[in-house]
Structures are given as structure tokens and as C-alpha cells.
Amino acid sequence: xxxxxxxxxxxxxxTSIFPSPIPVQCVSSDEYMPCPQTEKQREFEARVKxxxxxxxxxxxxxxxxxxxxxxxxxxxxxxxxxxxxPLYAVSRAEAASSDMANxxxxxxxxxxxxDMHTHFLRDDTRIKTFVAQRATVGKLGWNKGLGExxxxxxxxxxxxxxxxxxxxxxxxxxxISGSYSVQESDSFLTNQMKFDARAKVNQEAGTKRMFSHAxxxxxxxxxxxxxxxxxxxxxxxxxxxxxxxxxxxKHLSKWPFRLDDEKIMYxxxxxxxxxxxxxxxxxxxxxxxxxxxxxxxxxxPHLLAYSDCRDVGxxxxxxxxxxxxxxxSGWRWTGPNAPKAAWEHFEKTGRIEWVTDxxxxxxxxxxxxxxxxxxxxxxxxxxxNPRLGxxxxxTLVKGLGADHVVWGTDAVWTGAPxxxxxxxxxxxxxxxxxxxxxxxxxxxxxxPVKSAIFGGNxxxxxxxxxxxxxxxxxxxxxxxxxxxxxxxPGRTNLAYGYVNKSRA
Length: 504
Known about the structure:
alpha/beta; about 45% helix; TIM Barrel; eight-stranded parallel sheet; 2 domains
């Protein structure tokens, strides 16, 4: 978690930044310090405000209402292109015409999007550090109104999660992920809570709309017995682990582990191989990697070796029956100057720290069972420097293959995932980058590459059949969404993590 000194630089995103359809600065969870708003981000913010006001006036609506519309989303991407260069497939005509924007949105609304990296906090959460952080930043004068009310973090709980994921975006299926802490009260959700939420949503939908991980705690006394118990009792859809151990309270992390530790992990893999014969999704091992900033490294240097991807290749080679899904694609956060530093490093070396290491594994080890998840990584690079985001996509597709990059957003920290969906739908890697680095085109919004990333790859990993994909288009959640779109308040365009109130 963040230190008191770091807290003084932060503010809750939902009450502190302009509610643009695309965040106007980097938003983080509590895992790392977000970078200050850059000059380019300030330029984007000014443009999106200007374009929104002008187009809203012409359409006879408020700017806030306009930004909830498909045309408002298009206007935000026009502002992105004008700020960063032409990376997104959008036109001023689309932003100016509600009919044109709505026609495009309707054509894509049934695209299969399967988000396997989402979060919410349990109703009884008292994550002391998380609540205290939000209360503290409210009292520090960033937004005077915040200090006058209790920070209940209800926006991070199930009700708002359901709205943001299923009603305010084109997401069809989501997976509830989690976090692990030795201090159980500091876990986002227990495994039982994830199971209960999954059951609730799927019962309401009449289809399998929600999947859930079970967190495994490798190395702790009795952990394999706990795995056996939860497999039988909860029937998780896959497993998730944190190689650094306790990700929430790193000072309590006594059991970090490597994926290629034959003594600790291989007995676990044996169980998964056995179970996967009857339940194929048991072959999916989801692993949190990356997001290990310099300030955390300075405090916990012994955990650095467990944060990168150096242990993935051997484990994947030794266990070809399993799928190793690396969350955040191993992306390393490099500190407050991250946008500039990451781009300069890429221009100099053609590499993205730890992400390229992951992308190199299939060729280096001769394996085909390593996957890269886009959670937090795609959101951050899109808002920080879209050309870096294009480089990330080019690197992962080139190294892992388009069939091994999987969709995850880390929502709800970054708000409704619709803006991320739209960003990938519209994104194309610029010609100069494709020529220099040998990247392939990403292609149309509903073309083979993006369709695979949005849903096809996750559907294959989790055995979601074409019939099941079709069923979610007409189930009870789909009916609720249809009513909501006609009569509901629409997207808030809020994010729910933290922003840095400093300027770069």
C-alpha cells in the first residue's frame, strides 16, 4: 500500500478529474503511484472540453449528456488523434453526427467481449489502508467537498460494478478476480464471496455471465489441502496466484514463490492436470506479474525477483498441459516519470520492460501455452501515451501471437470498460512503427485479430461455446441492459482509482 508521503500527492479519481469519456490522466489502483498529469494529457483535456462544449451546443444538450453518447465517445477519440497523432479510426463527422455515431455503436454492440480481469470490493469491506487512504486524500484539500463526507467506497462495491461492467459497456462475460492478503480482511473478496457473486449473477441472467477465480496461496502451511477443499466446494473456473505473496500488505509477504519451483508449485500443477481431464478450465493458471514500481522495490527489494517473468518459461515448458495467463502482461511500472521513460526506453531499445520479456518466451522456450492479459496495461498506456499502447499491442501480438493475447481491463478501478473497448476497436499501429519493428496491423474493430483478443481467446481458454456466446445476447441481463439504455442515466464516465494531483 501507499505511504503517508505518497498519499499527500493523491486524490480519488471519481471526484477529482474531469469526467471525459477517456480519462484525462493516468488512474491507478492502490498498487502503485499514478504519474502526474503530463503536458500532453493537459492538452488532450483542453481539447476534449472544447470539442465537447461545441458539439453539445450544436446538438442542444449539456456537455455531460453529450459525453455519455456514442458521438461524445467519438469526440474524445478525435481529441486523442489531434493530440497524439492519427492512431484511432474516427472522424469529425462521426463526432458531429449522433446518427452516424449511433449506427457504428449499434453495429458493434453484439461483439463478443469477455473480460477476464475485473474487481469489486465486498459489502463488508474494511480494508483499513484502502478506506484510510481515500479518507486521507479527501482531507488534504484537493477537493474540499471530500473532506466533509465519509469515504464509503460504495462505488467499488458490487452494485456499481454490475452497472459499470454489464450495463455501461459492451462486456458480455466477466471474471471476478481478487487479491490475496495474509490479513484476510484486507482481501478484496474471499473465494467464497467470489463464488456467491458468480452464482448470483448467473442465476439472474439464466446464462453463464460471470466466472470466478479462486486465489491460491502457494507455500503457506496447508495450502494444497486448501486448494483441494475449494476445488470440491467452490468449483472455481480457474486459479489465480501472486508470486510476490501478499500483494496488498507487502510487509506481511512471507511466502513469495516462483512458478518454476519444482518443490512448491509442481505438486499443484499435477492436481490441475488431473482435474482438467474432467474440467478443462482447471488448466488455466492466472498469475499476477509486474506493477512493481521503484518505490516498492526500495522498500521490499527481496520481492523484485518474484515480480518479473523470468520464472514463466521453464514452468510453461515443463507443463505443456497447462495455460499460463500472465496478468498485466508482466508490465513494469517505472515510477512518476513512467510515460516519458517507458517511451524513451522503447525508442532506444525496441523493448518494453518485462512485457517484451514475456513476449519473447514462446520463441525462447519453444512453448505455446503462455498468454498475456491486458489488464491495467492497456488502460494506462492508452491514457499516458497511445503510441506506447500501440507498441504494447504490437509487441504482444508479434511475440505471443494474436491468439494468445487476452482481454482484461482491471475495471472497476478505471471505470466502465467501454472506453477501453472503444480504444482497442479504433486503434491501429502507425505505419512507421509497423515498418520499424515488424508489427502486423491490428485491423478492423470486428476483424480476426481484435475479435480474438476481445473474446475468442478467452472463450477458448474457458470453453465458452458459440451457443453460449449467442445466449448472452438475449438473456435477462441483456433485457435489463436494453431497458437501462432506454431509460437509465447512462455512463458516468467516472474512474474509481487514484490520480496524482501533481503536474509533470
